[in-house]
Amino acid sequence: MQIGLRSVLSFIVIVILSGFRDHKQPLRYKVPTHLSAPTLKYQVGAIPITTEPLQIPFTGQSYIGFKEALALKESSGNYASINTLGYLGKYQFGKNTLAFYGQENTSCFMNDPALQERIFFHNTARNKWILRRDIKRYVGVKMNGILISESGILAAAHLAGAGNVKKYLRSWGSQNFTDAYQTSIEDYLVLFSGFNLGDIKSTKQVHFI
To answer: Which of 67, 89, 124, 144 could form a disulfide with 173 if both were Cys (CB 3.0 to 4.6 A apart)?
Structure first.
């Protein structure tokens, strides 16, 4: 009976003393080899502006991918962006274009993302109507080493206006408009090629939004 009591008391003493271990020393746990995380290696490559189309992951090659890629280039996708020349919003519209669509109040425009999206959609559809003959005539043709695509034409029209895109195409690339930031029609023809905008119906009608 005494032996049993001594064993119980010894166990209690060991438990109590173990509570006073040095907590400054971290617990050590060795991760089994089969659970160790693999070494990850990342490689980031720059995409030259004049050699590769600009695409946004997960948005696809439809209208959504097109508009998001264009917005990334125009404003980094920022609805509140105003550049040094006074162009506004996610897609960097000029005040004259906004007025054309009945938007005189730029403050309302800047604070309404849905409105910005609608104007971009209608402007793209109208540019498609203005350039309908050029799209039919030049898509698939190479100019200055650039394969002309419908999405490239419509992106270039957003940058330079449909009239300047007509001049470029009908001069077989000899009249290449460049904006104040040294971005050209040819840059946009390359950056935004390969998107499928078949769902965007061309329209002559002006929508006062």
So the answer is: 144
CB atoms within 10 A of CB 10: 10
Characterize 16-54 residue by residue with b for buried, 16 or more Cβ atoms within 10 angstroms of its Cβ, and e for exposed.
eeeeeeeeeeeeeeeeeeeeeeeeeeeeeeeeeeeeebb
- pTM value surpassing 0.85: no
Report the C-alpha gap between 191 and 69 in whole angstroms: 9
Domain assignment of residue 182, given as a range: 63-191
Q: Is residue 75 part of a domain?
A: yes
Parts of the chain with a pLDDT under 50: 1-3, 8, 13, 15-50
| pLDDT tens per residue, range 155-164 | 999 999 999 9
Contact predicate 176/39, CB 8 Å: no
